[in-house]
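@channel anyone free to eyeball this complex?
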Amino acid sequence: MRLELRRVLQGCRRGVLTGVGRSGDHSLELPGCLLYTRCGTVPHLTHQTLHTLQHLPAVTLIPMDSLAEHQEVLEEFGGGMGKFAGLQNSVIFCSLHDSVAPHPTGYNTNKTVSVWGSGGRIELSVAQYMALQRAIRPDWYQSLADGDTQQLSTHKRVRKSVDRTLSNLDQCLNLHISTEGLRGSEVFGVVEGGVMLEERVRSAQETAKRPVGGFVLDGLHSRTVSQELRSQLIAAVTKELPEDKPRVLLGVGRPDEVLECVEAGVDLFETVFPFQVTERGCALCFSYDLDPDPESSVLESREKETKIQQKSGDDTLENQEEITQFEMNLKDKRYRDDFRPLVKGCQCYCCKNHQRAYLHHLLVTNELLAGVLLMLHNLEQYCSFFQSLREALEGDKLNALKKRILQRRE
Amino acid sequence: MAASMESKAEMGAVRAVSAAAPLALRILAECPVSKARACDLILPHGTVNTPVFMPVGTQGTMKGITADQLQDLGCKICLGNTYHLGMRPGPELIEKANGLHKFMNWKRNLLTDSGGFQMVSLVQLSEVTEEGVQFQSPYDGKEILLSPEKSIAIQNSLGSDIMMQLDDVVSSTITGPRVEEAMKRSIRWLDRCIAANKNPDRQNLFAIIQGGLNAKLRKACLDEMTKRDVPGFAIGGLSGGEEKDDFWKMVTLSTDNLPRNKPRYLMGVGYAVELVVCSALGCDMFDCVFPTRTARFGSALVPWGSLQLKKKQFAKDFQPIDPDCQCPTCKRHSRAYLHALFKTDTAAMHHVTVHNISYQLTLMRSVRESIIEGRFPEFVRTFMKRMFPVEGTYPSWAVDALASVNITLDGACSGQGCDSALC
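replying in thread with the prediction:
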């Protein structure tokens, strides 16, 4: 695997990863995103519906949380998770934790890390974790890590998390070399350190000394970490990392946060955000168009005004505060008779075939198709946003894009 | 658009069953042994090959699978429920969307029920009078009257290719004067529905034969309703928990008395054995929520019964649901993967829904081909043997029903003097 940096603009790395995957014949444009799945399936979607989308990420992410309980099955199957899930031609990255699922705190020890599957908690030692990876046979996987730190964790706890994670990494790398089934896979080292700058730097420096294929920046997704602090920590970390290896940030996905993290030196994200938007019955509708049609942008800002007015009104949704300015809440009554596509010009199956009123109906009646159509739309929009970001970096239009994304902040 | 133009042109060539109805039935083959037949049913949104199973998309969607997926499976007609759609989003909105086809973006045919069946399922909430069915909206508690005129008005707004008359539905297990009252009222309501149809040139209205399990009442209903110039007939009031021996006798009585040149729709039937047997009895169309509902519980239909994919026995079973099945699910996924996915994501349900719809449609295509090729009785024997491989386990009602149309099953006992516990 080779990382070729084409240019660095305001800290943003525009590049391409080539020779990706065991076969070495995939490539991945940076900055980019990994396709979030659980158990190898993008939530709500079958192979048939997923592949109505044109520009899917080349790497599929599968969290260990959704796999650990299937160890016996995967071992007996013997062909690896990709083949098991019907993902024959995909590059698979096995991460540790599902960014969406809750992870109770206090279960990691010096010897083990816990993951949570459908049947509850599963405690994994390094040896067990590596046996699982051997059965999964990913193209990339992250080392076992203790990311169980909070904003209020003591220095001692944070230091322990860094030490444990480094020790786990060394053990993983040892076992990796001796495991026949993992030949050709890349191990990604995990940078921990909570919100403590010196621990973050130490974790980065030490991890960078090891023979890893890339880096996962863990423990920065907490809602309690402000973007300002997150950016500072990430910038300090990426300064310590070699330029020629990819940096993955999991659990962060809002478009404005993505932009700032890219400026701090992150290369790869996951498509968790579009899934979260789908789960609350919303559709991404933010503008990332670099050359917007002036007429439609006037309309857009007008629409935004009414949206804000409406918000102060009688919206009784419990998760209202979670709804970001990048999305529209299709459960809202005013979409009842709105016969426009979700987003004009969007190339997804949903926008080419359906109207807002239909989506509103599906959501109100709790129909399963709502999740399918919204997931398709939100993935399309999100992947296009990354495409636009890469184009902005190539065409010196980053500031214009930032302005476009941030203008909708309230 | 093209499809509807084409079918209109086709309709010109075949004599339409009634002067104005937008429907034509072309009988391609009739089984020389049984009453089975294979037809082309030409409707405003394309031709439907019968016998046909129609999947049910209650609220304007096929349970998590897209219109394109449904079309790719070869589905030419599916159902929408008037009761549900009339409540949400309501006929005014669907009219504003230019009909249910446009609203859900389904380019092929739609059949809507009358909303009457929900009278049985929501009986606590409803009261039936000559005027119609009075019930309380479960959404806002408002009193609503569903009259024959109202049902047709809603179905006119939905724009379905086939509408069903409002009938007075009573449980198939009820006996006594209420059954006769319901049958007679259904005839009066049929006349009101015919008069209320604003779009007889675009929307077909089917009558529904009632009469419970009473042969005399059924026959009376058949005699009366077949005098009306409707484009098709449904056999109603069955498949509600009655004895199978009563069920098939009512079906065969109905097909014996329905006109040959009009489609016959057996409502609420969808188990594979029932589909095959009732095709032999001369039914053309079927619908049931069973295949899609059971899919969501992890039950996959196969020629030898069903697989409960959530059961532990499938955790390490790396074969597809049915190795002979050509559906997208079977071509890509194993039972073991689906078993694992059922613990994680709703997509597991979609995979099995796709498979089960494919199973039903493929089964009906096989029935049709065998009728056209003149080997239907042989097909039935092979089908039954695969479904009930253990000797003496054929359900007796199916044996009797098939025998009544001259199809005898290999190794099936007549029921008399047999000491099998299953007889």
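from a first look: Residues 305-320 of chain A have pLDDT under 50 and may be disordered.
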